Each structure stands twice: as C-alpha cells, then as structure tokens.
Amino acid sequence: MKNVLNKFKANAKKLNVKSVINAVIRALPIVVCALIIAVYLGAPNKILPPTPFAVIEFTNTWAGFIGAFALFFFVWNIIALFFERARKRLQKGAPIYTVIFVLFLLYDVAVLKLAIFPQPFFPWPDAILRAMISDSSMLLKSLGHSLSILLIGYIIGGGLGIVLGVSAGLMARARQFIRPFARFFSSVPIVTWVPIMVFIPIGFYLRAVFLIALGVSVPVTLMTMNGVLAIPKSTIEAARTFGIGKAAMIYKVAVPASAPSIFNGLAAGMGVACTALIIAEMMGVPAGIGWYMDMQRGFLNYAAMYGAIVVLSLTFFAVNAVLNFIKKYALRWKAGKDL
Amino acid sequence: MNGKIEIKNVSKTFIPVETDKRPVHALGLINLVIEPGEFVCIVGTSGCGKSTLLRLIAGLEKPNGGEIFCDGELVDKPSPQRGMVFQEHSLFDWLNVRKNIVFALKAAKKYKKHDTLIDTLLQKADLVEFANSYAYQLSGGMRQRAALIRSLAVSPDILLLDEPLGALDSFTRMSLQDYIIQLWRERKNTMLMITHDVDEAVYLANRIVVMKPHAGKITQIVDIPMPYPRNRGSSEFASLRTKLLKHLDFAKEDEQDYNL
After folding, report:
1. 8 Å CB contact between A265 and A120
2. B153 to chain A: which residues are within 8 Å by CB?
3. What ipTM does this complex have?
4. Measured between CA atoms, how close is B108 to chain A, in angstroms?
5. A235 φ, ψ to 5°?
6. How confident is the model over B27-54, as a mean pLDDT?
7. Which of B93, B108, B134 is nearest residue A242 as measured by Cβ atoms?
8. What residues contact residue A238 under an 8 Å CB cut-off, 6+ apart?
9. Angstrom distance (rounded) from CA B38 to CA B6
10. Is the pLDDT reported for residue A9 higher than 70?
11. Amino acid B260: pLDDT
C-alpha cells in the first residue's frame, strides 16, 4: 500500500508544470485540425460572387484531408506517450505543424467565411485540393518533366563548376582565365539571358537544361575556387611529401578538402537552378509544372494554378532538403553548427 | 645505413609574381652535411630562412643555386623517403586517423591489406581509441602524434620536422619531446627539426645549427655531447643553453650597458 502511494507521489512529481505544457504543445496540431474541420463545416459561408469560370462547390474533401492529419497526429501523440524518440520528434515538430494548420485555418476563414479576397483569384483550400486530385496524373507527369530538366541541368552545371573551380584553385594560369568570367556571370542575374536564349536553335528542352547548367555552374565555380585556395598550404604539402601524383592530388586532396565550400556553392546553385527552371518553363518549354501553372492561369483555372504552386514549392523544398542531407553526411568530419 | 643529407652551396631567392615587390633573399650559400641517424636541430629567429632550408631538403621548393643530395641522390621533388611533419594542419581533416595513415601508405605505394603496421603505430602513439576520430575531435598533442606516426608509417630514412610542437602548450610539448626521442632511438633514422625553442633543441639534438636573420646563413654549429635521456635541470644543460642564447644575441645580462 505504501509502495503504491510512493509511486503515485513520484509520478505526481514528474507531472510538473513544464511537462504539462509540453504535452499540450504536442497535442496542439490535433486541436487546430479539429478547429479547421469545425469552422469549415459549421460556420456559414458568405455568398460568393458568381463567376462563369469556377463552379462554387463545397465538398467534404478538405474536411477529410484535415481529418486524416488529425488522426495522424493523434496516433503520433499516443506513440509519443510510450517512446521517447517519437516524443522528442513530435515535440520539435509540433509548433511548426501547428503554425501551418493555423495558416490553413486563417486562409479558409478569410476566403470562405469573411470573403475578403476578390474572386475568382483566391480559391479556397477545398477547391485547390480537388483540382490537385482530379488532375493528379497531369500534375505528376509535369512534375516528372520538370524534375528531369532540373536534375540534368543541375548535374551538368555542378560538375562543370567543380571542374572549373578546382582548376582555377590549383593553377594560377587557369585562374586568370576563369575567375573574371565567373565574376561577370555571377553579377548578372540569370533572367537577363532569357531573351537571347529563346533564339538558340537547340530545342525547348536543351535550352532549359542549358540555362540551368549556366546558372548553377557560376556559384559552384566561384565557391569551389575559393575553397581550394583556402586549403592550408601544409595540407597540400603533407600530401606531396608522401609522393602523391597530380591526379590523386585533385580527387583525394583538393576536392575533399574544399568540400565545405563546394557544398555552399551547390546550395547557392540550387537556388539559381529553381529560378531558372521556372523562367524556362514559363517562357517556352511546352511541358513541366511551370508550364502547367502558366497554362492554367491562361484558362483562368485558378484552383489548378494554386495546386501547381503548392506542388512546385514542396518540390523545391524537397530537393534542397535532399541536398542538405547529402551535405551533412559528406561533411561529417567537420565540426560546427553551420551544417 | 641511409639518411645522409648533403647541402652544397645552396641559395634561395623568392621572386614575387607582383613586379612592384622586391625579391626576398631567403638563403645565401648554405653548406651542411648531416650524417645518417643524427638528430639535428636548426634554431634561429623568425625570418632566418630555417623553414626554407627544410622545404628545400623536402623537395617542396627548388634552390636557385647549389644542390642538395640525400644518400647521394639529387633532391628535385618530394619523396616518401623524406617525411615531413608541420606545425599545424598536417592531418587530412576529412579522413579519420587510421585512414590518414592508409592515405600515406597508399601514396607511397606501401599499402598492404591486413597489415598490422597501422595498429602497432596507433598503439605506440596511444591513439587506438581514436583510430576512427577526425582531426577536430583530437587535442593538439594527439594530432601531432598522429601526424608523426603517419609520417613514420612509410618508414622514411629522414624525418623533417617544421616546428611540430610550436602550437602546443608546454606540458604537452615536453611529453612529445620524449615521444620523439623514443621514436628516434627505436628507428635510428635521421631527424632534422626546426624550432625556436632553445630548450627543446638542447633537450633533443646531437647537433644544433644556429641561423641568423637577413643573411640566411649558418652562423654556428654547436655539438651537444650529453647522453639521453637528458636532465633539463643539469648544469651542463644550463651552460649549453646559455651558450646558444649568446649565439642568438639573447644573453646580454653580462654586458655593461644592458638594462631592461
């Protein structure tokens, strides 16, 4: 009996204010999801001005979608009660997810319940979601096309940038040729070249690849060169005293030693590549998600256009996250919080 | 026995790429013979050309005049037979300690799989637990121990040490001095070490070469006949130390017009 009482006391001690607040934070996404569903289904919609282009229709798709999230977070919260790792991850993520759902809620209220945005330019989440689902095969096809352009251009540009940057870093003579041009191109925004690009007779696809490769290669060249130049002299000389050959000096010393800088260049290059992709697709390439977005805008099909924007932004976020993941693994030998 | 170094009339001038800068006369006519198995320290104030001399012997730089021979062969490029340890950034940051040694062995074409050499060396340097650690995870002393065993892994006849202990605190430095003596007495290779610590030179060397700035010349060669292990507190140690400081113009206490 006494044992049980002690145990109860110990548990009560653990249940201090801080842990209660933490538990509430973990549960917040469920609360906000429930609120979204309640408001969406319960509160009266303000009558929207009729348009010939968009059918005003409210379905349960949005409520179901948010409901799935609510269920997901509920299960996660249950698991978090028993497993510390799940709890830590949820604790870290919950504020972010809460903010995202709050933004969903605010947008939903602003468009449907208060009607403060002009229609049909601001479709409500339910309409966007429906447009994405109904046209999902086309969206996926466009996404695949865009990704293939992005990755091919990025790999060509990144590879070229590393080769040029290492050459410029190791050889003073090569540097004289490469550095001025790299600096020139780095100060000119990639958009500047688009009007000329349109006339180069290599086809839409290659033109977009070329534009992306050009945009990526410039920051990668500059940052790689800086990285190679910053390698401590004694690191290179230590390698030389072991009798290392010229080729091995490049791929076994210069490239790994300047890898932190190369990755900074690759990250900057990814930003340029994403910009270049959108420009290329909105200015000529007859496929891809940018083209899809522009086409739907032309048809005044705003819900589908918003859907394309959602897919595109998530895709850009994902490619940057993948790059960051690779960087973290490749630079595991480096101390620092900047990784 | 290998490890002889002959330096004949060597001079070195650095001509800057920028034409508005003056050329720097780093070394003027150096002559020195180091016998196999000797431990020689070069001391001198900054800018006396001692580092340049070491880099010429390593083959990292080429002399403008004169020649350097190691075991009768002209030095014209770096070779694994002449290992070198630097003050800092010697280790390859992106490789762990074991892979640093593997790198050296592979570059020198002496790498064999399932070789116990690396484990023996790690044991000797007290780095077994740190075999998989990266440079940033090691203390300054551990880094220099790792750099030392990495250079010795390819069993060079000559080991060139460019102020290897210059960046360490004094206790770590003393323990590494003993470690270097121990390695040298086991392997009996030639050691040529640059330092600007007179105590360190007297503690380690058979012979100390004194260089003076600006001229880039050897002004004095002092023999240290004390047996190993040496006593840092002995009167013989103190008198040799004073003698060296005098050669370097740092012992002016006895002079009439000396005041602080």
Report:
1. no
2. none
3. 0.87
4. 6
5. -65, -45
6. 88
7. B108
8. B84, B86, B90, B91, B92, B147
9. 13
10. no
11. 57
Is A238–B87 a contact, with Cβ atoms under 8 angstroms apart? Answer: no
Q: Is the pLDDT at A257 greater than 80, yes or no?
A: yes
- Verify whether the Cβ–Cβ distance A241 to B58 is below 8 Å: yes
What string of H, E and C letters represents the secondary structure of chain A? CHHHHHHHHHHHHHCCHHHHHHHHHHHHHHHHHHHHHHHHHHCCCCCCCCCCCCCCCCCCHHHHHHHHHHHHHHHHHHHHHHCHHHHHHHHHHHHHHHHHHHHHHHHHHHHHHCCCCCCCCCCCHHHHHHHHHHCHHHHHHHHHHHHHHHHHHHHHHHHHHHHHHHHHHHCHHHHHHHHHHHHHHHHCCHHHHHHHHCCCCCHHHHHHHHHHHHHHHHHHHHHHHHHHHCCCHHHHHHHHHCCCCHHHHHHHHHHHHCHHHHHHHHHHHHHHHHHHHHHHHHCCCCCCHHHHHHHHHHCCCHHHHHHHHHHHHHHHHHHHHHHHHHHHHHCCCCCCCCC
B239 touches chain A (CB under 8 A): no
Query: Model confidence over A214-224: pLDDT tens digits?
Result: 999 999 999 99
Q: Does the pLDDT at position A151 exceed 90?
A: yes
Mean pLDDT over the full length of chain B: 87
Q: Which residues of B touch A234 (CB under 8 A)?
A: 86-90
Q: Strand, coil or helix: what is B238?
A: helix
Report pLDDT for A49: 55
What's the pTM?
Answer: 0.83
User: Comparing A91-105, A174-188, B110-124, which segment has the lowest mean pLDDT?
Assistant: B110-124
Q: Which helix (H) or strand (E) holds B4?
A: none
The length of chain B is: 260
Q: Which residues of B touch A333 (CB under 8 A)?
A: 93-96, 134-136
**A126 within 8 A of A56, measured Cβ to Cβ:** no
User: B84 and chain A: CB distance < 8 Å anywhere?
Assistant: yes
Residues 6+ apart with CB under 8 A from A144: none
Sign of torsion over alpha carbons A315, A317, A320, A322: negative
Which residue among A172, A235, A248 places its CB closest to the CB of B107? A248
Residue for token digits 């959108």? A278
Across the A/B interface, how many CB contacts are shorter than 8 Å?
77
| pLDDT at residue B229 in the model | 86
DSSP β-ladder status, B65-70 and B5-14 = antiparallel
Q: Do A238 and B92 touch (CB under 8 A)?
A: yes
Q: Report yes or no: A257 at the B interface, CB cutoff 8 Å.
A: yes
Q: Which residue of B has its CA nearest to A259?
A: B94
| CB-CB under 8 Å, A334 with B136 | yes
User: What is the identity of the amino acid at B202?
Assistant: V
Residue A74 CB: number of other CB atoms within 10 A? 15
